[in-house]
Amino acid sequence: MKQLLTFLLALAAIPVLAQNNQPIDGTDCSNLFFKALLEEDANAMGNLVSNDFTVTNFNGSTIDARALQQAVSQGFIVVDSGMLTGTRSRTYGDVTVVQGLWNVSARIQNNGFNGNVAYTSVCVRSGGRWKVATVQLTPAQ
After folding, report:
1. Contact predicate 61/82, CB 8 Å
2. Most buried of 39, 78, 117, 130, CB within 10 angstroms?
3. How would you write the pLDDT of the chain (141 residues) with one tens digit per residue?
């Protein structure tokens, strides 16, 4: 009887954990960030980035979290498809550096891009939660 009760309590907790959608580590945090971009989910993105977040784009310009969220929510950035490959993560205490390739088809202010992008994301654990602090995107051959 105790086993059945424990099993039922564990099942009841699963939806709560799934709704929380908090990253379990730095790599998961980075992956969820790219998933939020793909799904054009500005709210999820806002929950994943640090207060001082920046992204550095193809031409070396940087934008902050608020500008990125607005661009996604207003349709200035539209990711049609994207797949992460070759992911390599290194964790140093409360900091994880994630690198890999993102094969992406996207439009930025109606200018299309289709190809591989090398990315580096730095995720930090602060207050017990993982956040993306910065992302660097570079077109790759």
Report:
1. no
2. 130
3. 444 333 333 333 333 333 356 899 999 999 999 999 999 999 999 999 999 999 998 889 999 999 999 999 998 889 999 999 999 999 999 999 999 999 999 988 888 889 999 999 999 999 899 999 999 999 997
What domains can you pick out in the chain, each with its CATH number? Answer: 25-139 (3.10.450.50)
Model-level pTM? Answer: 0.82
Please state the φ and ψ torsions of residue 94, each to the nearest 5 degrees: -100, 20
- Amino acid residing at 78: V
Q: Measured between alpha carbons, how far is residue 112 from residues 57, 61, 78, 79, 80 in Å? A: 14, 18, 9, 10, 10
